# Entry
Amino acid sequence: MKVVQAKHLAGYKILISFSDLTEQVVDFGPFLTDHSHPQYDKYKNPGHFKKFKIERGNIVWGKDWDLIFPVEQLHAGKIE
# Structure
């Protein structure tokens, strides 16, 4: 299974479409507020957060994939 499309909704929520034709709204806000690693700080800024892209079947942030999550977690609608 892979991510085929993603659309920013509001705040830190993204509607993600998968290759199995399912969709899931994922709220990345709790992850960003609970994890204080400096690498993630810039993505707390909504302007940076919205600059995600789909590469190799996953949703990623940053040139070097600074932020990436397992597709299984995205599909379940909850990231850890």
Q: What stands out?
A: The first strand starts at residue 3 and ends at 10. The chain is about 25% helix and 35% strand. The domain at 3-76 is CATH 3.30.2020.10 (NE0471 N-terminal domain-like). The longest helix spans residues 29-34.
